[in-house]
Specification:
The chain has 92 residues and is mainly alpha-helical. The chain has a domain of 60 residues. 71% of the residues lie in helices and 4% in strands. It has three helices and two strands.
Length: 92
């Protein structure tokens, strides 16, 4: 509303929101990238490209986590094999 030309003081009274908060929201809105806008529920609307980047970043993070889990599993298996090999030697 402010970006559309409404006065902060009037909006503050109408909405019951402190002026300083409205000014801060205005600054945040103005500082957002050209393609980003508030969706109305506090979330930022992303372009298709930005949404795809987020999906890919999440996918990458998931794969990195999976890779680390596999590495830890291999480490545990190697230690288990070593322990079982030692037991077999002792019992012979």
């Amino acid at each position: 509303m402010i970006l559309g030309g409404r006065k902060v003081s009037r909006l503050s009274e109408e909405l019951g929101v402190p002026k300083n908060l409205l000014y801060r929201w205005k600054q945040e809105a103005e500082s957002l990238n050209e393609g980003l806008r508030f969706s109305g529920n506090g979330n930022i609307r992303l372009t298709d490209e930005q949404r795809r980047i987020r999906e890919l970043e999440k996918s990458l993070a998931d794969m990195q986590m999976e890779k680390e889990l596999l590495r830890l599993e291999q480490e545990v298996l190697k230690k288990a094999i070593a322990i079982l090999s030692q037991r077999d030697r002792v019992s012979i």
